[in-house]
């Protein structure tokens, strides 16, 4: 099998389809019929990662927050706090919070100066 790479032993070297292990002696390609000896696969470690995006795509579920709705949320008027901007000394800053770490830890507060557009954050 000249086309095989170390990580693609479970896939058909002809068409790329996942091989089917219906026998203890052979792995067959359900699409093109290629047969590979099971001894070529025996003892190799298999890892497979499934992301939330993969699950949503498979189940045809729309994400809760789309890029467009996130952009709209960024354009919403933010709350104002009486804090001085460290860059230009403007007396008020806009702010918003996000939970970036685990739920049992504090939120991160993001500050944005409406005067000079300086941005910084604090973990609370």
Cα shape: rod-shaped
The number of strands is 6
Q: Can you summarize the main beta sheet?
A: 4 strands, antiparallel
- If classified by CATH, what would the architecture of the largest domain be? Single Sheet
Number of helices: 2
Into how many domains do the coordinates divide? 2
- For this structure, the CATH topology of the largest domain is N-terminal domain of TfIIb
Flag low-confidence runs: 1-7
Helix percent reads: 10-25%
Strands side by side in the biggest sheet: 3-4-5-6
Distance between the termini: 57 Å
Query: Which strand-content bin applies to the residues?
Result: 15-25%
CATH class of the largest domain: Mainly Beta
Structural class: alpha+beta
Topology order in helix (H) and strand (E) letters = EEHHEEEE
> What is the residue-mean pLDDT, rounded to a whole number?
79
Kindly provide the radius of gyration, computed on alpha-carbon positions and rounded to a whole number of angstroms: 27 Å
List key phrases describing it.
2 domains; N-terminal domain of TfIIb; four-stranded antiparallel β-sheet; 124 residues; 2 helices; two-stranded antiparallel ribbon; disordered N terminus; alpha+beta
Description:
By secondary structure, the protein is α+β, with helices and mostly antiparallel strands. The protein is rod-shaped and about 75 Å long. The chain has a four-stranded antiparallel sheet with strand order 3-4-5-6, with no helix packed on it. It has a two-stranded antiparallel ribbon with strand order 1-2. Residues 1-7 have low confidence and may be disordered. A hairpin with a 6-residue loop joins strand 5 and strand 6. It has two domains: 1-48, no CATH class; 63-123, N-terminal domain of TfIIb. The longest helix has 9 residues, at 67-75. It has helices at 52-59, 67-75; strands at residues 26-28, 35-37, 79-81, 93-98, 108-112, 119-123. The protein starts with 25 loop residues before the first strand and ends with a strand.
């Amino acid at each position: 099998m000249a086309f095989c790479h170390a990580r693609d032993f479970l896939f058909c070297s002809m068409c790329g389809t996942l091989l089917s292990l219906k026998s203890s002696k052979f792995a067959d390609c359900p699409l093109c019929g290629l047969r590979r000896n099971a001894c070529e696969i025996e003892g190799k470690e298999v890892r497979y990662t499934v992301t939330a995006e993969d699950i949503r795509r498979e189940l045809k579920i729309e994400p809760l927050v789309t890029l467009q709705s996130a952009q709209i949320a960024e354009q919403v008027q933010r709350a104002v706090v009486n804090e001085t901007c460290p860059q230009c000394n403007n007396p008020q800053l806009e702010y918003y919070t996000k939970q970036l770490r685990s739920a049992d830890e504090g939120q991160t507060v993001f500050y944005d100066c409406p005067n000079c557009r300086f941005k910084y954050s604090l973990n609370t």
